[in-house]
Amino acid sequence: MAPKSRSKRPGLLSTGRPPTVKSKQAALSSKATRTLIRSHHQLLKARAQASKAGDEARVSSIDAQIHANGGLESYQIASKLGQSSDRGGDSSKILVDWIKPPLDHWDPSHSKLRVLEVGALSTKNACSRTPALDVTRIDLNSQEPGILKQDFMERPLPSTDEDRFNIISLSLVLNYVPDATGRGDMLKRLVKFLTPLCSITFTPTLFFVLPVACIDNSRYLTEERLLEILASLGFHLVESKRTNKLIYQLWHYTGNSKPRTFKKDMLNPGVKRNNFAIILNKG
Fold first, then answer.
1. Short name of one Pfam family for this protein (predicted)?
2. Distance (Å, whole) CA 238 – CA 45
3. H-helix or E-strand containing 66?
């Protein structure tokens, strides 16, 4: 008789991020900002691989490199600079534009739409300035009051609709998760936090932002595969926009899930392509 397989608890986001260190905020050029962010992601990927292989010496070495580069705090400073008005702006402006029609019917005497912003960097973005939205902000390393220090994978599951959200913003978060299975686990967990309960007609919504390279230049993920993955979880794509660097998407949660398994399949071979992938395990 084959031994029973033990169910594996979804990995925490924090396992992909080493301890933070203090660093001084300095002016960074656009090129330096991109380099810091790219380097940080590469080191996290290498760290995850070393940790999976049980190579503690390699993990310690990589942690030292990340520490030398300023750690998570420097990464977040670079990310904030990347969202400044002179470098592409606040991504939540696109979300607010996309959901504006139903918001026009919101009555101030009614309850607001609840938003969960995962990986929040600021309390002053477009969502925060929209009266119809009640924003809950979380991040692994809170940068200011109003952002709860919390790992989404450890956030207690809601027990009532009042604890759920009408909108979840996942802007440049999934690409930070260091392994493909963890990304799939995060997407599966999202649906448990969505609710149709609100004061206006509004479909539960996921705002999703990824670097274009994660889709266009990956061996294991294409836009078609991403659509298949999210459709299997009950999402329907309603808006999409591309820039040179980012892809923005708005997904409605229909609840019509068709659970499937998606492995790390070779979809787009090429020596210069990256290994970004999403593994989704059925069940």
1. Bmt2
2. 31
3. helix 56-68
∠ CA 47-53-59, rounded to 5°: 35
Bigger pLDDT: 51 vs 159: 159
With H, G, I as helix, E, B as strand and everything else as coil, classify residue 214.
helix
Q: Which residues are annotated as a binding site for S-adenosyl-L-methionine?
A: 119, 139
Q: What is the pLDDT of residue 200?
A: 84
**Residues 179 and 52: beta-carbon distance below 8 Å:** yes
Distance CA 214, CA 158 (A): 31
Summarised one tens digit per residue, pLDDT across range 167-216 is: 999 999 999 898 999 999 999 999 999 999 887 889 999 999 999 999 99
What architecture is the 90-253 domain classified under in CATH? 3-Layer(aba) Sandwich (3.40)
What digits encode the pLDDT tens for the residues 55-81? 777 767 766 666 665 555 544 444 444
Name the binding residues: 119, 139
Residue limits of CATH 3.40.50.150 in the chain: 90-253
Which residues, 6+ apart, have CB-to-CB distance to 265 below 8 Å? 220
Q: Indicate if the alpha-carbon torsion angle 23, 29, 30, 35 is positive or negative.
A: negative
Q: What is the DSSP string of 136-204?
A: EEEESS--STTSEE--GGGSPPPSSGGGSBSEEEEES-GGGSSSHHHHHHHHHHHGGGB---SSS----
